[in-house]
Write a structure and sequence with these properties.
408 residues, mainly beta, 5-stranded mixed sheet, globular
């Protein structure tokens, strides 16, 4: 099913959706933020006949995950009616916002000095990675204000070497520093910047990482990786303000990072996958995806049993080939519910529910999904040379029919 989408015409190098704000890293060096709700209001004003659907699709993905909606849309006639409305909106909504129309509503956080290589937002902080290290700003939202206005701090350097990718979960921020290795540090620091030192380092190469629940997979190249296990404890220390700001509530904290490691050869001992034929790999929670040299696309389950080595299932699942992608290698991939988004040199493609859909047919700067967000789980943002596009993907396949009385 087609995505609902709209575009902001702006010259940016990175963009990020977080806590009701859109953050834009402009090509002239400015780091700006603007109310995302204001943008959606502009969209609703142009298409009042789809007002409620637009708000559900772009502002409140969590409503589709509630048990009440699962119960209501478990009635196939109702689900079909909403699906038809979605399809109609996807065909009719064609909306572009020019940056000049919103620039007066934008607020400044400062400027970047070195071209950003990655951006990540976690625990009410923005991290910007570049050749010169990682800069951090605390957002400081005012929760006594009905609009949660931000009072961001000036950017401070929290890491002093080149970082190509970063992420965070369960109280840890993780930096991929290419040939210098994988670094990690405590992200939950009150009223102070995060400090990541050289002692918290996993030697070897690190180009990117992917979380599998609270463990992490470190990718040393497009196809090679190691699975790192982490020790966690239940905790109530993690910031409740993050939940108010739209993050999913985390109830675990990582206390020991990378307590054991498993390379891809160990994990594939009992699988039917030829590791030499892998062109590109990435993962979601409990599963890995492989784009093979022949263009085929494979999904396989990660088996984690306490006291046993981490291994792949003996059976892999072939997925539809990435139609139109030929044998070109992916540049990046990101996970969405029941699928993933894959960026190639000249296009962006969505794989979801055994179907493949072309999202963009031009080269892009980057793709981003928001699986750690309550509100934006079903949204894909695509940053391009002269615009940022927002795609709300199919949510109906993720709705289960809820039983009214689960004990029966």
């Amino acid at each position: 099913m087609r995505t609902l989408n709209f575009t902001i015409k702006a010259k940016t190098v990175e963009s990020y959706l977080y806590g009701g704000y859109l953050f834009l890293l402009m090509d002239d060096g400015r780091i700006l933020y603007v109310s995302y709700h204001r943008l959606i209001h502009m969209l609703c004003e142009k298409y009042p006949q789809f007002d409620r659907l637009i708000k559900l699709a772009f502002l409140h993905n969590e409503y589709f995950k509630s048990k009440s909606v699962q119960l209501i849309l478990g009635i196939e006639e109702l689900k079909d009616a909403v699906r038809r409305l979605w399809s109609k909106a996807a065909k009719e909504v064609s909306f572009e916002i020019d940056f000049s129309d919103i620039e007066e509503y934008c607020h400044s956080m400062g400027e970047w000095n070195s071209v950003p290589l990655d951006v990540y937002m976690y625990d009410l902080r923005m991290y910007v990675a570049s050749n010169e290290g990682v800069m951090e700003s605390r957002l400081n939202p005012d929760f006594n204000d009905q609009y949660y206005r931000l009072r961001p701090t000036q950017f401070e350097k929290c890491f002093d070497s080149k970082v190509v990718s970063l992420s965070a979960r369960a109280g840890k921020v993780v930096l991929s520093a290419d040939r210098e290795g994988l670094f990690y540090g405590d992200a939950l620091v009150e009223n102070a910047r995060v400090n990541i030192n050289d002692h918290n380092n996993i030697p070897g190469r690190s180009l990117r990482t992917g979380w599998s629940d609270f463990d992490i997979i470190n990718y040393e190249s497009a196809r090679q990786f190691r699975y790192l296990t982490n020790d966690t404890v239940n905790t109530d220390k993690l910031s409740s303000d993050r939940f108010r700001f739209g993050d999913k509530l985390e109830r675990k904290e990582i206390v020991n990072f990378a307590t054991s490691a498993f390379d891809m050869s160990q994990m594939m001992e009992h699988s039917n996958i030829d590791k030499e034929a892998i062109r590109f790999s990435f993962n979601s929670k409990g599963r890995s995806f492989f784009v093979m040299n022949d263009g085929s696309f494979i999904n396989i389950r990660i088996k984690k049993v306490e006291g046993e080595p981490i291994q792949y299932s003996s059976v892999s699942r072939p997925l539809p080939q990435l139609s139109g992608a030929g044998l070109k290698s992916p540049l990046k991939a990101a996970v969405v519910p029941n699928g993933c988004v894959v960026e190639f040199f000249d296009k962006v493609m969505l794989y979801q529910n055994n179907e493949v859909q072309l999202l963009e047919d031009i080269p892009v700067y980057g793709i981003r999904t928001y699986m750690g967000s309550r509100n934006y789980t079903d949204i894909v943002t695509v940053t391009k040379e002269d615009s940022v596009s927002f795609h709300s993907v199919d949510v109906f396949s993720t709705i289960n029919s809820a039983r009214m009385f689960p004990h029966q």
